[in-house]
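CHAIN AND CONFORMATION:

***
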Amino acid sequence: MPLSQAEPTLPFRFVGGFALSTKAIGFILSLQGIYSMLAQLFLVPFVLRRFGSLGTFRFVAISYPMLYFAVPYLVLLPENLRMTSVYFCLIWKVTAQALAYPSNAILLTNAAPSMLVLGAINGIAAATASLCRAFGPTVSGLIQSAGLEKGYSGLAWWVCALVCIVGAIETSWMDDVAVRLNIDDERDEESESREPLMDQIAIDDAITAAGVRSTEEVDNQHGINLSPKRIKN
């Protein structure tokens, strides 16, 4: 977005951007990808071991509203501080993102009542996340366009901040409790849920019939009466 020469009317009415070149935007995105990879490898395991999945998720959920609320005001900073603030918010955002997804996945897995429904739960969660990624840019783009027409370039960011506040409040009701059954119980449940391939009575009858036929074949070949009825007679 180009720089704006209009005088801002604080606290909310202002427009304008950083007027970054395509090269600068590509460099920032490259740094974002590199830092995200390093955070996933080294930072996430340490933080999850230290604070747990629920504590990490709550911290991230609380930090997101502050980040989304503050980003639009970066354009109002002095020019020598703008890029420094951009990199700071970028590190903040990537760190929160790297911590949010693993902790959310762990909490979801622990909340599954059984391994038999874990796949369905993860599938629904992935489908919901994909749906939000599909409609999120469309909705936020419409809000951004409406905000620019009214002179509020940060409207889309502030709406996202409100959504994140709702999510942060919901984390206060969450518990990191593993409700899944133990391994033996899950195996028993899985074995009970499977229907037998053949009836056991039918199997026993087949074995008995095969034994009788084998005895009659020996009688016919060797002329020996091995049948219990013949021996008795």
The CA atoms of residues 213 and 219 lie 10 Å apart. The radius of gyration is 33 Å. The first helix runs from residue 22 to 70.
